[in-house]
Specification:
Elements: H1 20-31, H2 36-51
């Protein structure tokens, strides 16, 4: 292995080191169990918000 590369051992489950975990938690808490009409409203609001 090249000398300029350092291996770092990470824990198997490290949600704080993986930013996508926060997104999954947000999606689960805001969209799981919602009705189709509510999902559509939330999706449209998210799309409009992301364009600002």
């Amino acid at each position: 292995m090249p000398e300029n590369i350092t291996l770092v051992q990470l824990p198997a489950c490290s949600p704080k080191l993986n930013p996508i975990e926060g997104l999954w938690n947000y999606l689960k808490s805001h969209f799981c169990g919602a009705t189709p009409g509510l999902l559509e409203k939330r999706f449209k609001r998210a799309v409009v918000f992301s364009r600002c």
